[in-house]
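for the record, two folds in this file. i put them one after another cuz i was lazy. first one right below, seq on top, structure tokens after. the second one comes after a little note so u can tell where it starts
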Amino acid sequence: EQVRGNQSIDRPASSATKPRHEGRAAMPPAMKVTLKYEEGADAALHTTLKLTLPRKWKEGPTLKLKETFVENFNSKHPEAALELAKVHLLNAAGHALADSEIVCQVLEHGDHVRIK
């Protein structure tokens, strides 16, 4: 029994031991990827961006990852801005990813993706 002010609240003892998520479908773990740009001799421009992807992005095109990286890079390095159409993503095996490929079909949680 729990008391709040003048009111008492009776709760069955079993509810205290039940996990809150019981009965709900298990949510898939968040997908995290690391985007790396290491082109050119100027190490100051080498950039790493770690992302936890929103659920919608996992089912969307890899273009969203590329756009996010380019926007982030260009905001930090306006003097050496990247052009979205001139860069591409490479998976861990070194294969270029088309902008239209679906993230969850070509990448896995924890993958490192190079920007070239």
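(here's the note) second protein begins now
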Amino acid sequence: RERNNLDSVEFAQQDVLKFLEQAINLGRSWDLVIVDPPKLAPNRQALHRALFMYKKINRLALKVVRTGGLLFTCSCSAAVTSTHGLLLKTINEVAVEIDCEVSVVKEVGPASDHGVNPAHLESNYLTGLLLSVHHREKY
């Protein structure tokens, strides 16, 4: 970490929900939080449960982003990505619930080395949202 000037970067390996809940209870916050869960919706039938989990994780993540900070949240589930705007809609619903405003800084998809086959649109399964976060009041 020191060699790369990463003294202010914190790495943790534990259950994300427990980590974020502990951080909230301790009053911790960061300028940048990255949420990159594994595939939560392997198919359309799992979409409802996946959206519940995206909400749960991102609700906690938004609470630990400092006002003016950034949340980078991702989905690698084709069932989510195939409905354009679904991830953003899901995050916005959570933001409204906790009286927080988010603005899209950038939306990204697969990198150029991860091509999308037009004959197999499910190959377009990566979505990333870089969001600016502003809390209206403490939750």
